[in-house]
């Protein structure tokens, strides 16, 4: 399979066959004498790790650490357990962590590597569409603090991220749909044509499609690696989406990150209509197209105050307003939109009533 290298100053990303990528060369050269730790969850231990073990001789001595799967386990408690294991394995600064999994594994594995002994090298091998097009690219690591998403984390780039579509064949449709939401977001904030492709395409796991999504994100990260300005565009849908996800996780409701982001994008687009003058017809098109794919969020009016409380704790907030990325039109976005709690409550009420 062809391997495509993303053009980026900050991000070293390859898309295509893991076997044909730089992975084995890195293991055999730069990290030839390094101890290797592979972090997986229960799913990737079963479905993905055997492929690596049988394909790469340089991994035959690797130790495997299995994380409990699920967003509810993306916590400091689990990190402490892994750091303890790394200490017991006598892992040193020159050693290597390989994160093999979805967004929880790459976010948490990257955080674990970035903090242990003030930072050791790590490689991301994302195995879900969402982690390929978003979570594993750009150097954000993180864990949750109770219901609040990614409250603890660092900006630390992996040695390389390698996206091999072979792993996507094991995914249920709900996980493909989750990754598609982040691709839709990339289009809404920066590329109207790509948004249209994301809505109309039938196959989201082709190299060309994944590469375009990753390139859009990498371009933004190159210009603003530490999220001081333009990179905040990538947060569209996430202020509301993270609150919904936190609420659902706390109440043992099964939702994906992508579903929550999709619902958040509709609500934040509704706010964009009121604050920025997003054309109502364009808003209705966005809302209708997202509803057709993702349905509606499982929230009721009595939960609004709890959602607002979660948004108050959002790490993007710097004033008494809720900080949101908003869109002027499809493909054009603004950062640091100041949304009052009253405006957010109104948007949530209209959404729940089916009027947003």
Keywords for this structure?
356 residues, alpha/beta, Rossmann fold, Dehydroquinate synthase-like, alpha domain, 2 domains, 7-stranded mixed β-sheet, two-stranded antiparallel sheet, 46% helix
* Helix/sheet category: alpha/beta
Helix content: 40-55%
Biggest sheet statistics: 7 strands, mixed
**CATH superfamily membership of the largest domain:** Dehydroquinate synthase-like - alpha domain
User: What is the end-to-end distance?
Assistant: 45 Å
CATH class division of the largest domain: Mainly Alpha
Q: What ranges have pLDDT less than 50 throughout 5 or more consecutive residues?
A: none
Shape: globular
Side by side, the strands of the main sheet go: 1-2-9-6-5-3-4
CATH architecture of the largest domain: Up-down Bundle
Q: Indicate the mean pLDDT.
A: 95
- Helix tally? 14
Q: How many domains, in number, for the residues?
A: 2
Radius of gyration: 20 Å
What string, H for helix and E for strand, traces the elements in order? EEHEHHEHEHEHEEEHHHHHHHEEH
Total beta strand runs: 11
Bin the strand percentage: 15-25%
CATH overall fold name of the largest domain: Dehydroquinate synthase-like, alpha domain
């Amino acid at each position: 399979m062809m391997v495509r290298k993303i053009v980026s100053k900050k991000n070293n990303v390859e898309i295509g066959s893991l076997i044909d990528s730089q992975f084995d060369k890195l293991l055999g050269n730069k990290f030839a004498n390094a101890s290797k730790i592979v972090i997986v969850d229960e799913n990737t231990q079963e479905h993905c790790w055997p492929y690596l073990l049988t394909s790469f001789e340089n991994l035959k001595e690797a130790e495997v650490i299995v994380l409990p799967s699920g967003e509810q386990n993306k916590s400091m408690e689990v990190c402490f357990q892994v750091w303890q294991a790394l200490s017991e394995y006598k892992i040193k600064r020159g050693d290597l962590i390989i994160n093999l999994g979805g967004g929880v594994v790459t976010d948490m594995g990257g955080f674990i590597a970035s903090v242990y002994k003030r930072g050791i090298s790590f490689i991301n091998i994302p195995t879900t569409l969402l982690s390929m097009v978003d979570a594993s690219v750009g150097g954000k690591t993180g864990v949750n603090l109770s219901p609040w998403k990614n409250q603890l984390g660092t900006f630390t780039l992996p040695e390389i991220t390698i996206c091999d579509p072979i792993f996507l064949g094991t995914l249920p449709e709900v996980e493909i749909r989750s990754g598609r939401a982040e691709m839709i977001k990339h289009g809404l904030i920066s590329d109207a044509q790509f948004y249209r492709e994301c809505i109309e395409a039938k196959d989201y796991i082709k190299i060309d499609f994944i590469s375009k999504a990753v390139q859009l994100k990498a371009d933004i990260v190159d210009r603003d690696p530490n999220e001081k300005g333009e990179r905040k565009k990538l947060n569209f849908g996430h202020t509301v989406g993270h609150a919904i996800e936190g609420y659902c996780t706390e109440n043992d409701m099964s939702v994906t990150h992508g579903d929550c982001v999709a619902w958040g994008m509709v609500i934040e687009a509704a706010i964009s209509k009121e604050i920025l003058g997003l054309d109502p017809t364009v808003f209705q098109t966005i809302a209708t197209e997202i509803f057709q794919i993702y349905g509606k969020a499982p929230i009721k009016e009595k939960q609004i105050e709890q959602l607002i409380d979660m948004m108050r704790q959002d790490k993007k907030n710097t004033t008494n307003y809720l900080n949101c990325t908003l869109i002027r039109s499809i493909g054009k976005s603004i950062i640091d939109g100041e949304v009052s709690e009253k405006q957010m409550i109104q948007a949530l009420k209209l959404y729940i009533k089916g009027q947003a």
